[in-house]
C-alpha cells in the first residue's frame, strides 16, 4: 500500500522514514508549509516556563534565538525529544494533546508560562490556564501556510482511485490539515466522494472531516506515531 503523508516538512520526511522502517510505503505530500517568524524570540520573565505543543514551535524557538535556560513542558514525546535536541531541559510531558498537557501544567511549580505556537492555534491553552489563575501568554513564532493545490501524486491517486501499490491512503495529523484536504478536494475534483482511506492521529482530526466522502476513516488508539502506525496496519487489512 501507499500512504500519503500530509504533515509539513521536515516532519513529513521523518514520518515517511518511520513508516519505511515499519515496512509501509509512504510519500511526503505536505498540505502545510511552515514559515518561521522574522523576529527575535521574546525574553522570558523570571520563573516563567516554556510550553510547546508541536515540534514546529520548538524549531521556531530555536531559529529565533530563544533562551534555553527555562524549563520546558511538551505536549507529547516527539515534541519533548525535539526540545531536548536543541538543549532545553524538559520538565514534564503531556499525553499527546492539550487536554492531557493542561493538568501537567497546573501541577508545575512555574510562576507563569510562555506558549510558543503558530499563528493558527487550537486548544485555547493560554485561555484555559488563565481561567484557573495561572499566568500564561502565547507568542506566535511561526505560520503554517496552507497549500493552494493538492500535490500532484495525491491528486493523481485520488483521480484514479488507487495507486500502483494499492488503494489510496491519506495520513492526517491535525484538524487544520483535514480541513485543508476537504477544501482542496472541492477545488480540484468538486464536491464528490473519493475511494480513499483516511488515517487520523486523533478523534479531533477525524471530527474535522466529512466522513461520508471517504471509503473509510480510521483513528489511532492514541495520538502517538507508534499508535498511528498500528492503525495503518490494522486498518489496511
Automatic annotation (TrEMBL):
GO terms for biological process: tetrapyrrole biosynthetic process. Pfam families: HEM4. Residues 15-229 form the Tetrapyrrole biosynthesis uroporphyrinogen III synthase domain. SUPFAM superfamilies: HemD-like. One of its GO terms (molecular function) is uroporphyrinogen-III synthase activity. It comes from the Bacteria. This is Tetrapyrrole biosynthesis uroporphyrinogen III synthase domain-containing protein. The lineage of its organism: Bacteria, Pseudomonadati, Pseudomonadota, Alphaproteobacteria, Parvularculales.
